[in-house]
Amino acid sequence: MEELNDKQAELLLKEHGIRLTANRILIARTLSTMSYPASMKELEAKIQTIDKSNIFRTLLLFKQHHLVHQMEDGNDVVRFELCQSQDEKTDDDMHVHFYCERCQHTYCLSDTPIPQVELPAGFEQSSVNYMVKGLCPKCSHRYYLK
Predict the structure, then answer these.
(1) Which residues does the record give as Zn(2+) binding sites (predicted)?
(2) Measured distance CA(100)–CA(140) in Å, rounded
């Protein structure tokens, strides 16, 4: 997703049925600047004008309105990223994530959709967290050079 300006962030929040506040606009804009799913710690470092509890509550609200994906990376850290969907009811851009076990970086594989899973009768899916673990190209290259 491209970096959002204030007007674009406001429109995105409205499309997802989220009431506009300065904090919500700032958090959405900050998430749009990240090239990877961000942890709370990373968001706190970038947004020093909003306390941790307000950032977290806003992220939970965003998740309820399908404005962010929440995933756990391979290091037990919860990460968040803006959805590219334009709808508060569905996530139409769910994709695979990759966690590098060496550099501990989480990558979005936006062009790799999550495979459809057929659930048994009576089960209802609310979200999917599809994380692949291994070595990223940079770390894999270093491994083979040794």
Answers:
(1) 100, 103, 136, 139
(2) 9
Query: Class for domain 6-145, per CATH?
Result: mainly alpha
Domain ranges of the chain: 6-145
Looking at the predicted structure, is the pLDDT value of residue 139 above 60?
Answer: yes
Please report, in range form, the residues annotated as the binding site.
Answer: 100, 103, 136, 139
Distance CA 47, CA 57 (A): 14
Annotated binding site for Zn(2+): 100, 103, 136, 139
Q: Which candidate, 114, 135, 108, places its Cα nearest to that of 37?
A: 108
Kindly report whether the global pTM for this prediction surpasses the value 0.85.
no
For the chain, the three-class secondary structure string (H helix, E strand, C coil) is CCCCCHHHHHHHHHHCCCCCCHHHHHHHHHHHHCCCCEEHHHHHHHCCCCCHHHHHHHHHHHHHCCCEEEEECCCCCEEEEECCCCCCCCCCCCEEEEEECCCCCEEEEEEEECCCCCCCCCCCCCCCCCEEEECCHHHHHHHHHC
